[in-house]
Design a protein that fits this description.
The chain is mainly alpha-helical and about 120 residues long. Helices cover about 85% and strands about 0% of the residues. The model has no long low-confidence stretch (mean pLDDT about 80).
């Protein structure tokens, strides 16, 4: 049986897209689950204190460092998230070029389902 590359390429590309989308979704879900309360450095200070056995002065110093970097970390996350979305949209556009009109509709529907899941996760 001979494999036609014209059929194999779209299947391979769809596999890559699904893998990337599911990986991204999983990563976002995990970070949202583990990120609850992260805007307050107290949880991180307590974790450090427990694992590193910090004294009171060290706790205060660690808290000061975390608080001083909080906004720059938020800005970085926002910036990289926007860049990730930009790359994903470009990739989606290129992928759609190799799909049939029917596959494009299915691709769009798949993306809408994933976007809806992301929105629900962000609301939690």
């Amino acid at each position: 049986m001979k494999l036609d590359w014209k059929q194999a390429v779209p299947v391979f590309v769809m596999g890559l897209v699904l893998g990337a989308a599911l990986g991204s979704w999983g990563q976002r879900a995990a970070s949202q689950h583990h990120g609850k309360g992260r805007s307050d450095p107290s949880r991180m200070v307590e974790k450090f204190s427990r694992e590193l056995k910090l004294d009171a002065a060290q706790k205060d110093a660690v808290r000061a460092v975390l608080e001083s970097r909080r906004e720059s970390m938020r800005a970085f996350k926002k910036e990289t998230g926007a860049r990730f979305d930009e790359i994903r949209l470009s990739m989606d556009s290129e992928i759609k070029k190799v799909l049939t009109p029917e596959q494009q509709k299915a691709f769009d529907a798949m993306h809408e389902r994933m976007a809806a899941r992301r929105r629900r996760a962000e609301e939690r």
